[in-house]
Amino acid sequence: MRVEITEAVWIEESEYHVAARIASRLQADLELDVHSTELALALIERIRRLEAELRDLKARSPSP
Fold it and tell me: What is the pLDDT of residues 9-46, one digit of tens each?
């Protein structure tokens, strides 16, 4: 099952709880408003995906 956070960001239901916890911490620790929190979550997810892509590319490239 997928849960829509915003029009552009879809996450699996199991990841929703993690995202909610992260959002709560961001709001409390950094005093972010809802829109800033949404942006921060989107950027965190983008970084996570880019890191995974980089790991995949490194795993496929031959070692020197």
Answer: 555 666 777 888 888 888 999 998 989 988 888 888 89
* Residue labelled with tokens 């996450």: 11
What is the DSSP track for 1-64? -EEESSSS-EEEHHHHHHHHHHHHHHHHHH---HHHHHHHHHHHHHHHHHHHHHHHHHHHSPP-
Token couple for 24: 């709560």
Half-sphere exposure of 49 (CA within 13 A, CB side): 8
> Positive or negative, the Cα torsion across 53, 56, 61, 64?
positive
Cβ 51 vs Cβ 43: under 8 Å: no
Query: Is the entire prediction scored with pTM above 0.85?
Result: no
Q: Of how many residues is the chain composed?
A: 64
